[in-house]
Amino acid sequence: MDYFKNIFESAATVFEGLTITASHMFRKPITIQYPDRTLSPVIEMLPSRYRGFLEVDMKICTGCTLCMQACPIQCINIEIAKKTPSPQPSPSRGEGDGGGVPMRLITKFNIDIALCMFCGLCTEPCPTGAIRFSKRFENATEDINKLMFKFVEEGKPVAPYKKSSG
Amino acid sequence: MIQQLSLLFPMLPMWLVQAIWCGVVAVLLLTFFSLFAGPVSWLERRIAGRIMSRIGPNRVGPQGIIQWLADGVKNFLKEDLIPRDADKILFRFAPYPVFLGVTLTLVTLPFSSLLIGADLNVGLLYIVGAWGLVVIGLIAAGWSSNNKWTLLGGMRSAAQMISYEIPLVLSLLVVVLMSGSLSLQTIISSQGASPVEWFIFSNPFAFIAFVIFMISAVAEGNRTPFDLPEAESELVAGYNTEYSGMRFLFFFFAEWGNLYVIGALAASLFLGGWQIPAGWRNFASAQGPILPHVFEVLMFQLKTWIWVLLIIQLRWTLPRLRVDQLMKVSWKYLTPFAFVSIVGTGLWMVVFPEGWLFMKYLLLFSMLAVIGYFVWRAIWQLRFTKSKADFKLIV
Ligand code: SF4
Ligand code: SF4
After folding, report:
1. Cβ(A123) to ligand 2 under 6 A?
2. What are chain A's domains?
3. pLDDT in tens, B245-281
4. CB < 8 Å to A21, chain B
5. The pTM of the whole model exceeds 0.80
6. ipTM score here?
């Protein structure tokens, strides 16, 4: 009869459920206690292709602005200034008379991380891999302006990277 | 007790001594109650965490054990919001019947053969009656908030509590039938210390009555799988959706207090209450007048806690019933079986006036077998998922 079958089945399933939960009392929780009680720092536990904040290695940035053009929401702002450096020999360039040759300088390289959606489109066209995702992700702040990452300090323009011809 | 006290203070009038004594007892009971409800809320969250492979609160104090204090203080500091269109008087009033209904039952719940608020000769009736106050508070809360969720929760609580009160009271009748008394102390004294002298194992019908009692008591306490009045996933928070601060805390206080009431009732009605074996009693009496009571209190708490833990585990095991299923369980299954167990117990007492020892042992050992199978099955589940048993508390 269905009536007694129902009773038996409900008792049996409640019993089975209780054994399962009882066995869970002795299983290890899988929670990771971010931020302070992890076995190793959280940054080390992230996967290798994690998309954290963008970072730009200004040593190898060529100033091509491809990343700026690729960004669908215009959160990268690069300004290039053409300057004619004073006619001094610059040994690093290996040109005895650099004077008079106009030179490009990156005067501004801002990424508005508050706007960025971490799509990664900017990292793809970069010829040198200068712009890339870091694993940093903690930057809660009360001032949104702090989320404007400036990779070129004001007043200190950076010379773009040039492939050595050799 | 009062006579001895008035002898101690002969200059005070009798009524004053009585009033002071009542105040002291009330404060003691309320203190016990809050010291139970608070930590149990923490314990429940830890157990729930473990069952869900989480950790649960573990930051406030060692293992998070004073989390409940932090929560309480937080709720004290919260604003007591009253919705603009609410029925203000009723809205303010509603938490108190809920709270009272649960705390009043404590008066007749014994702790030991001496420690009891008041051993009323209608104790059981009083408990059922006081418990019935809860439903008034729940409906008042649901109605006065002027919110559809709360109203639905209140209506559900009314339907649920009223229909589950019937099997509950009927299963209590079985105990009354066997002990011939409504006073809790008499009920306990008519049982013995050894399991075969408990009412639960005295005959198969009493065992059925116990199961019915547990199910309908859980339903009375509005706990999962019968938590339809608050049904978080359907009704936001049911009847207490609009409450905040202390008033909200009162509802939850009552919910966890209910746990103790259910456990203590189960322990004292069916499991022999504070009865301790004669050997222990003789040993304890030899040490002084206090030790026997300590043993009794510990025994009672042990039995109570078994059921408290079981109910907590049930909550995190079973899904919520549908409204129609809820009614079906009460009217189609529990109530008929409660009648069967009353009639059966009556017949049993006529056929075996002295009880049938074989049946008692049979019930006891089948219960032990079920518990043993439970443990084996739980270990099997652990092996089945290839998990290693982990007894560590801190993670
Ligand atoms: S990740 Fe996407 S949104 Fe962010 S800067 Fe790069 S292109 Fe723009
Ligand atoms: S970061 Fe890469 S893409 Fe962007 S300007 Fe520099 S070299 Fe070009």
Report:
1. no
2. 51-86+102-166 (3.30.70.3270)
3. 888 888 888 888 888 888 888 888 888 878 888 777 7
4. 51, 313, 316-317
5. no
6. 0.74
